[in-house]
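Working notes for the structural subgroup meeting. M.R. asked for a predicted model of this chain before we commit to crystallization trials. I am recording the input and output together here so anyone reviewing the notebook later can reproduce the run.

Input as submitted:
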Amino acid sequence: MKISDFPKDIQPYLIPKHHAKLYYKCLNCAGEYDIKKLLYTCPDCGKILLIYDKNFKSLKKIPGELWQKIFDYRKMLKIPALKGIYLFHEFIGPIIPLDSVLYLGEGHTPIIKANDFLTQKAGVKFYYKNDGQNPSASFKDRGMASALSYINFLIKQNHVSDILAICASTGDTSAAAALYAAYMRPKVKSAVLLPHKKVTPQQLSQPLGSGAAVFEIPGVFDDCMKVVESLSENYNIALLNSKNAWRILGQESYSYEIAQEFDYDLKDIVVVVPIGNAGNITAIMNGFLKFYDTGIINTLPKIIGVQSSHANPVYKYYLEPDSKKRKFEPMVVKPSVAQAAMIGNPVSMPRVIHLVEKYNLKAGCNKVFFIEVSEQQIIDWELTANKNGHIACTHGGETLAGLITAKKQNLISDNETAVINSTAHALKFSGFQEMYFSNSFPKEFEISPDPRLINRPVYIHPENLSEVPKHGKPLTGEPFNKFIKKVSEEIADILKLKKI
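Returned structure, recorded in token form:
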């Protein structure tokens, strides 16, 4: 549709015109810093940052119901820069001109309702939000679209040049970073650090295919992150992990899309997400708070963060009910099928602490909860979900296991509906499925396959067939007819089919 075809009261708002004044703010010392610099930590105290808008109050001058119409009508435009996460431009990156926005197809991933069987088995009505249907097949594309659009803006404004974008990763971050950096070649080059042999072959192939310099080092993600932090402190590089506050801005789009999907009525909605490096849950809280403050939504939804028992420092932190007595302690992680969860010292933990307190205060009651699940539950529920029409990754299994655990703990009532997060595509983690089906998990994973969930191919070659088709040597005539008949009969017998 052309802008002239839209209602006249909406037309002036379709192309974003908000005059933002963004700045970095330290969550520790409250220092404020110029957005035109590539900053990841506070220059004064070294702590983590968030991005704020000094002109945010002006967004409140537009009634919440009008904002709803703006976003719903804007979704009908054919302008590429507004098709993805920047549909919500005023709330994500309002200083970035539309001609600097990178759009590779990210955002607006489908929300798929669980079928009746799976709903009954879970004991609660729920939907999967399939972020594996982003361009690089994970939710990380949301943050990368934001971070690289920002870098593109800085380059066009001649604030930076000769950018090397770098990140530490358990797989998905590297794929997204390499993809978006590749789109900006030759202005931007990329490098990724991965923990050796702790990334699936599918995930490793992605940054290699996008042309990134890939480095594998001993240890786990936390070790890779320390190296990347050291590089960012001593060299002129662009750090693309969630320590980068622009990543958080982009990932807020997840919450905006959920609000839009449910017509901005989130009264009985529960959002369940895996924690990992804690950037996603941080962004989701911040996004809902922005929509709440501007009247776009009238209720803050319940949020449940899930961690594997093999990497659960956030869960352990919130076990202490008295906030004054809580003390965050990093941990040594154990192997997990939810590989992005293998983080014992989440970079965004200070953001979590800050925003959980703010979120609960705004809601007037506790609305953010944390639970843990076992590795067995994660993989069993992933396989169960996918046997019922989903394409959940292991982290999608983690959120489904978390949903069911939360229901048993009475954190979710019968009248509530959950939106659970499958952060990546199931194919990225097909190796874990194969290990489950072949019962080949190393002991440290603490997983014993349920025979009811195992599915293996069956080779059909009837014993009394002397001739069968071979590559380059097809059968014909009576031998071919006999082959078809015998194979069909054997399959029918296995499947217990009745003749017509």
